[in-house]
Amino acid sequence: MDHLTRSLSTQESKVVLALTERRQREATRAEIVELLGGSDKAADHVIESLRRKGWLERATWGEYLLVPPEQGPDALVTTIFSRSPAASPILITSALAPPPSITG
């Protein structure tokens, strides 16, 4: 697996920072278009760039998961989230859910 440095352009940082500030781990294409305030085509370019750099992973068609900044500037793209549109909802949900806690 290639090592990716998770650097950001101005438009990319706008998406990542907005989602992070909102504590939002998922976003739709429409939400990203709205965040950027530009054209669909420009947003698609930013989304694809964020996916290539390891900041976003596709959950389903038109829905994306943020790989959070706390994973560090040199995070590797994980294999839990398949780049295939047929990514397992169970794997995605289990990766997003907080670990269970037992209280007594």
Strand order within the widest beta sheet: 1-3-2
The CATH architecture classification is: Orthogonal Bundle
Query: What is the C-level CATH assignment?
Result: Mainly Alpha
Q: Report the β-strand fraction as a percent range.
A: 5-15%
Short description:
By secondary structure, the chain is of the alpha+beta class.
Question: Key terms for this structure?
Answer:
3 strands, globular, Arc Repressor Mutant, subunit A, 12% strand, alpha+beta
Describe the overall structure:
This protein has helices at 10-21, 29-36, 40-53, 89-96; strands spanning 26-28, 56-60, 63-66. 40% of the residues lie in helices and 12% in strands. The chain has a 3-stranded antiparallel beta sheet with strand order 1-3-2. It has a single domain (10-96), classed as Arc Repressor Mutant, subunit A (Orthogonal Bundle), CATH 1.10.10.10. It is α+β, with helices and mostly antiparallel strands.
Task: Give the SSE map.
Layout: H1 10-21, E1 26-28, H2 29-36, H3 40-53, E2 56-60, E3 63-66, H4 89-96
Antiparallel strand pairs: 1-3, 2-3
Helix pairs in contact: 2-3
